[in-house]
Design goal:
By secondary structure, the chain is of the alpha/beta class. Helix 1 packs antiparallel against helix 2 and helix 6 packs parallel to helix 9. The chain has twelve helices and ten strands. Strand 9, helix 11 and strand 10 form a beta-alpha-beta unit.
Length: 370
């Protein structure tokens, strides 16, 4: 039960990092027309180099670009596809610890045939791979995002009178991107998927019914979609999935344990591991981990990114022990529960605490697994 030479690693992380102030400033200047794309890209490059140095410096073996070239964890990717438009909000609202209720999550609607007509993250991955000495990890949204949030009325019926063609086009778009990423050398890919976690929330499940979907059958539908989307990947490409209940500047959108989706999630999706949010009681117990089959890894998201409050090592170790009652310790790993900046403005946490939390993950993982 020691160091892993294949991801997900004993100490890992979800992907996004706090954007530096000068990156925010450069984006504002680009939006105002004061600088061009080349000038913005140069600032992004410099900031990503620093983010890579931070990750390498705390001892992480998987390194991301912090998602510094994005404004939003999934909108940028989905917007790059033909046949999509971003609008409105999903049923349900983001909530905070003080009881504040915010707007609902953004959704995509489908206005025509879905198609990927150009690479989306491939050049960005090439820069990451060329810049880090560690395993470059890329995070992209799950294809379920386009379906779950649209509802049947949000998928153009002229383009898709039946949904079989929609799912086929959606999977094809992801397969094309993954094939190009594989050719560029990507061997560690993460699909970010809030929807399996949203399907654990009673309010969200009712919202799903109202837009025309069946929350009981969706997990199996989505397992088939994801398997189709990743089906052509190289045998040596590790694919994982991150699940959380929303992460907008520290707010969340759903709650409830993984029980309603666990059997399908863990057994019917042909991926290698799961990053599971477990930083608060909103995520439920570790009991659903009993459904995880041998050969798959669960990365326990025990360290919160929603605030700067630091976790205690002995508390984290006790929670890992609790999880190990349901899944072998050798199939577990440790990470923060989500990214530090799923959207550009980031969570209510500073760089010093972000760094300390990443270092804490590395230290605890080393002490638990060797």
């Amino acid at each position: 039960m020691t160091h892993r030479d294949r991801p997900p690693f004993r100490a890992d992380h979800v992907g996004s990092l706090l954007r530096p102030a000068r990156l925010h400033a450069a984006r504002a200047r680009r939006a105002a027309g004061e600088i061009g794309e080349a000038e913005l890209a140069s600032v992004e490059d410099d900031c990503i180099r620093e983010a890579i140095a931070l990750q390498e410096g705390v001892g992480l073996e998987a390194v991301t670009d912090g998602e510094f070239r994005r404004g939003h964890w999934w909108v940028d990717f989905v917007s790059a596809l033909d046949g999509t438009r971003i609008e409105g909000g999903l049923a349900g609202r983001f909530r905070t610890a003080d009881g504040t209720v915010r707007h609902g999550p953004t959704r995509a609607v489908v206005t025509g045939r879905i198609a990927r007509t150009r690479p989306i993250e491939v050049d960005y991955f090439r820069f990451l791979k060329a810049t880090t000495r560690r395993m470059p990890k890329l995070c992209i949204p799950s294809p379920t995002l386009v379906h779950f949030r649209a509802g049947r009325d949000g998928i153009d019926r002229r383009a898709y009178p039946e949904l079989d063609g929609f799912f086929a086009d959606l999977a094809s778009a992801w397969r094309g991107e993954i094939a190009d990423l594989a050719e560029a050398g990507c061997r560690y890919l993460q699909l970010d998927d809030t929807n399996f976690a949203y399907l654990c929330d009673a309010e969200m499940r009712e919202g799903v019914r109202k837009i025309g979907w069946d929350p009981d059958s969706l997990p199996r539908t989505y397992a088939a979609l994801i398997n189709d989307a990743i089906g052509g990947r190289p045998a040596d490409m590790v694919v994982t999935m991150h699940l959380c209940r929303g992460n907008l500047s520290g707010a969340w959108a759903a709650e409830g344990g993984y029980d309603p989706v666990a059997e399908v999630l863990f057994n019917e999706i042909a991926i290698d591991g799961f990053f599971l949010e477990y930083d608060t009681p909103r995520a439920g117990s570790f009991a659903p981990l009993r459904f995880v089959p041998k050969g798959k890894t669960v990365v326990l998201g025990l360290v919160t990114t929603k605030s700067g409050e630091m976790e205690q090592k002995d508390v984290l170790k006790r929670r890992i022990d609790e999880a190990a009652r349901h899944l072998a310790l050798d199939q577990l790993a440790l990470s923060p529960q989500c990214g530090f900046a799923s959207v550009a403005q980031g969570n209510d946490i500073d760089l010093a605490h972000e760094t300390a939390k990443l270092r804490l993950v590395v230290e605890v993982a080393s002490e638990v697994w060797g």
